[in-house]
Amino acid sequence: MTELEAGRAQTLAPVRSGAALHRYRDVLIALVAFAVLASLPLFTGSKALLDFVIRCSAYGLFATSLNLLVGYTGLTSFGHGMFFGLGAYSFGLIMQKLGLPIPVAFVATLVITALIAAVIGAICVRLKEIYFAFVTLAFQMLIHSTILSWASFTGGDQGLRGGIPRPAFLGIDLSNHVHLYVTSCALLVLGLLAMRQIAQSPFGYTLRMIRDNAARASFLGIDVWRAKLTVFVLAALFAAMGGMVMALFVSGAYPEFAYWTISGEAIFINMLGGVSTFLGPMVGTVLLLLLNDTVTRYTEYHGIVLGVVILFFALGLRKGLLDFVAEWFAHRRDAGEGR
């Protein structure tokens, strides 16, 4: 080893050790979070609360996957919901038509999603920001129209009827509500941990560089198109995971899962929670579902209330809630250090 190589190794060693420390910390946090969520049925018999957490798992995976595009890469997708719907329908159809074991159907759904996302992404990521957003929306509407028109296969506007078979595997019976709850929590934690590792990896920092200045990133030798396509496919896979959780929860799949409004909800969730902090979309998911559940209980004009909330965050805080809290703590810390 030359002196230059030795010096470079010494320089990179603290960086690598710091990255490894953060990785172990994230794994520890994920294990603690899963333990807390999984033990919840031991302390409460509320089926409504468990259902709420399952819904948070589905939408949390979906919204956080969108933030890989929006917050980390600067790609605003108006059609990201197509992969949520694609995951729900692919999984449901595989289970209904082929009757495969659930783990096999899960993997097969991810493969189907990856292939379709690669084709769509190869077209979309070449486009400028506004065109990217609207072309993804066009593809979502195409998939939604296909679901409606292919009624003999997808059930049309009635969705997949007859329920989704849930054969037991490895001692797990997803027809049991507690087993379904724990499995949903496991998928949520694993999905978030995987996305966290992506965001904190060298690839994640490459995405940030592309977001800040794609031309400079290209000048430095980064294949911008390939990086965008890779994150587009990865985001699609995590969105499909959310769709599968929702399909298991409702034991079916419905055209609304692939309609453009589901993408709007994901964007709204990111606005509520924030896009510059990793857990912002999860906070936004909890806020949106609480708002929907609470407001619809008292008034049928829930759209007006949600509109007011959007205005508050857009004009008042001018950022998501977790972004606001993180910035406030940073200011307090800086002020304390300056004394």
UniProtKB/TrEMBL annotation:
It is a multi-pass membrane protein. The chain crosses the membrane at residues 27-46, 52-70, 102-123, 130-153, 178-199, 229-254, 266-291, 298-317. GO terms for cellular component: plasma membrane. It comes from Bradyrhizobium diazoefficiens (strain JCM 10833 / BCRC 13528 / IAM 13628 / NBRC 14792 / USDA 110). It is found in: Cell membrane. PANTHER family: ABC TRANSPORTER ATP-BINDING PROTEIN, HIGH-AFFINITY BRANCHED-CHAIN AMINO ACID TRANSPORT SYSTEM PERMEASE. CDD domains: TM_PBP1_LivM_like. This is ABC transporter permease protein. Its main location: membrane. GO terms for molecular function: branched-chain amino acid transmembrane transporter activity. Keywords: Cell membrane, Membrane, Transmembrane, Transmembrane helix. InterPro entries: ABC_transp_permease (IPR001851), LivM-like (IPR043428).
